[in-house]
Amino acid sequence: MSEHQRTKDGEQSEGNLLSSFNVSDHHHIVSEAELFVHPRHMKQMKPHQIEGFKFLQKNLLSDEPGGCIMAHAPGFGKTFMIISFIQSFLAKYLNGRPLIILPKGIVSAWKDEFQRWQVQEIPCYDFYSLKANNRSQQLDVLKQRIDQKGILFLGYQQFSKIISDYVNDKIAAACHDILLTVPTLLILDEGHTSRNKESNVLCSLAKIQTPRKVVLSGESSPEHREWSTERFNTSADAKVFFGAIKACGEGISLVGASRLLILDVHMNPSVTRQAIGRAFRPGQTRKVHVYRLVGCDSPEEQHHNVSFGKELTSKIWFEWSECSGNEDFKMKTVNVKDSEVAFWQRSSLRKDVKILYQRTLFLYK
C-alpha cells in the first residue's frame, strides 16, 4: 500500500479535523523580534538563560526557521528557559501546537514545572495521566489538542510506536498523521536518547514536518566522544577540544594536544595529573605545555594551594632521591615579561597576570 493511498483512506473520517487546522501555518510564524520574555520570568532568569531565549528566537522564528541544540550542563535551567519560551510563543501565536518528546519518567516533572511557572492557563496533555492506552482514546486526546492550544507530552518509545504501527487501521493512521503534521514546535528533552541513527525512534522523529526542532541535552554519547577525540588527534582542522577535567581524566587519549589549559581547580591533585596524562603519555618526546589559571586572592587560590601541597607531599615521600630533592618539586617564580612561552607574548594576555610559576616535569620511558 502506497503512502498516498494509506493517507487518503486513513483520513476519510478525520479529514474535517485536519483541514480545520492549517498545517502550513507554521511556515509563516514570522518575525523573531516580536517575541518577549514575560516580566515574571525575566526576574528569575540568569544571563545565560536570557541569551538562550534569544538564541531560540533567532533559530526558530526567523524567516527561514530551523532547528537548534541547547546543550547547557545539568542544573543550568534549560527546562525553565524552554517553558518561558513556549509560553511567550503561545501567547504570540495562537495556532502554536508544541510537542515535547521526552523519557516517560520525567513527564510529571515537566508538567509540575509548567504549573509552577505558568503565566496563563495552558492545557498540558499526555496519554499516561489520562490513561489513554489504546489508539481510539489517544485520538480523542489529540483531537482536544487540535481544537485548543496546548502542549502534548509523549515518551520516546510511545511516539515511535504510534508512528511505526499504523498500517490497515484508520484510527492509528489518524494518530500518525496528526503527530507528524500538527506540531509547530518540537522539543526533544534528553536528546541523546535517540542517538542511534538506525533506531525506530530517530527515524520516526525525522518524519515530523515542522522545521522548528529543539534538542535539549547536557550529555554526549560515548560514540560521539570517541569520534571527537579521534578527530582531534588526527585532523589538522581540529584546533581546540573542550572537556570537563574529570571526564577527560580517564579512558581517553588526547595526544594531539600541544597545549593544555586547566580552568578547574580540583582538591584532589591526582585528578589534575590524570587529565595532564591524557595529553602527555609515558615515553612521549614531544613537549606539552600545561597552563593552570587560578583566580588570585580568591577561594580558588586557596584550593589550589591545598591541592599543590598534597601533590608536593606525595612527591617528597615517593619520588625523592639523590638526584631529585625538595627544590626540584617546587615551582619557580617567573617574571611574565621574561617568560619565553609563546602563550604570554601578547600584552593583552599578560596584563592581568599577578604572578607566574613555572615547573618542568619529565615522564620517564
Automatic annotation (TrEMBL):
This is Uncharacterized protein. One of its GO terms (biological process) is gene silencing by siRNA-directed DNA methylation. SMART domains: DEXDc (SM00487), HELICc (SM00490). PANTHER family: ATP-DEPENDENT HELICASE FAMILY PROTEIN-RELATED, SNF2 DOMAIN-CONTAINING PROTEIN CLASSY 2-RELATED. The lineage of its organism: Eukaryota, Viridiplantae, Streptophyta, Embryophyta, Tracheophyta. Its main location: nucleus. The keyword Ribosomal protein does not apply. One of its GO terms (molecular function) is hydrolase activity. CDD domains: SF2_C_SNF (cd18793). Pfam families: SNF2-rel_dom.
